[in-house]
């Protein structure tokens, strides 16, 4: 028992070292990723549930590394949050997304809003407001062209500070959404005063529609709650027709997921707009 205990320990510490080394390597590579142009935005379409018109995109960051391959955001965004690099990455995402709105508007004469994900760091930042304002002016964006998504858990970490920041953004005309709704612990009293327009129902609930009655009940309850607070609901992670039908029947407002469109680089995402214009 003693020796197997030690083996376990060695195995565990070996794993720890490997994870720590990997992280160090990622951090080092991250330092030059932006200058080397390794970051890229993908765009995933969002559709109105009732008639499937294209209503906007969500921008999702991708890191294409020459030897590590495609590094998923959940592998490097949390590290960037910890070491502060998120502040540069966040600014880059904001800039790129607004530039894309501007370019599509010019190309298609079609205003299509883009949502970006805000990090905890950005939400706390005292310069966020002026940065958003500057970039919106630079690309001549109007009200409704830009949406910011804040995860429920980040919003609830310091709800009072968050409400202040969101209020100022809302006054500027930015659309606001609570992301991953249902996975954090928002109290109803805070939800009531959060100055957001939209709730994004987490994909873990959408995932089990048709299989787990509890999740179906949660979806319906979340939709009703949002509507009674005057908010729209986006269902994320819609992968099957069955999920789509269920969500439409239960009055969900907006659908997003692989069934309707996967995140794609700008050149491919353009096709979603062309299809919308044709329809
Ligand atoms: P999120 O904001 O909840 O984004 C939705 C995630 O679900 C994306 O993963 C998207 O590709 C994926 N997804 C969309 N439709 C489906 C579907 O039908 N089925 C399944 N299984 N997945 C679907 P992704 O792109 O890997 O991003 C993961 C998370 O990383 C995001 O979750 C967001 O929290 C974060 N993230 C991504 N881009 C950024 C960014 O620019 N800034 C910040 N701060 N965070 C970002
Ligand atoms: Ca999101
Ligand atoms: Ca989400
Ligand atoms: Ca479940």
Commentary on this structure:
- The protein is α/β, with parallel strands linked by helices.
- Helices cover 54% and strands 19% of the residues.
- It is built from 12 helices and 10 strands.
- The chain has an 8-stranded mixed beta barrel, surrounded by 4 helices.
- A hairpin with a 3-residue loop joins strand 2 (54-65) and strand 3.
- The radius of gyration is 20 Å and the shape is globular.
- Residues 58, 117, 149, 179 line the site of one calcium ion.
- Strand adjacency order, main sheet: 1-2-4-5-6-7-8-9
| Bound ligands | ligand C2E, calcium ion
Structural class: alpha/beta
Please trace the helix and strand order, writing H or E for each element: HEEEHHEHHEHHEHEHHEHEEH
Proportion of strand residues:
15-25%
Low-confidence segments, ≥5 residues, pLDDT <50?
none
Q: End-to-end distance, in Å? A: 69 Å
Shape summary:
globular
Helix content: 40-55%
**Can you count the beta strands?**
10
What is the number of helices? 12
Rg, Å, rounded: 20 Å
**Major sheet, described briefly?**
8 strands, mixed, barrel
Protein name: EAL domain-containing protein
Compact description:
By secondary structure, the protein is of the alpha/beta class.
Please render the helix and strand layout as text:
Elements: H1 2-33, E1 39-48, E2 54-65, E3 69-71, H2 73-83, H3 86-108, E4 114-117, H4 120-124, H5 128-138, E5 146-151, H6 152-157, H7 159-172, E6 175-181, H8 188-193, E7 198-201, H9 203-207, H10 213-228, E8 232-235, H11 241-249, E9 254-255, E10 264-265, H12 266-278
Parallel strand pairs: 2-4, 4-5, 5-6, 6-7, 7-8, 8-9
Antiparallel strand pairs: 1-2, 1-9, 1-10, 2-3
One calcium ion (CA) is lined by residues 208, 212, 215.
Protein name: EAL domain-containing protein
Domain EAL: 23-277
Keywords: Phosphoprotein
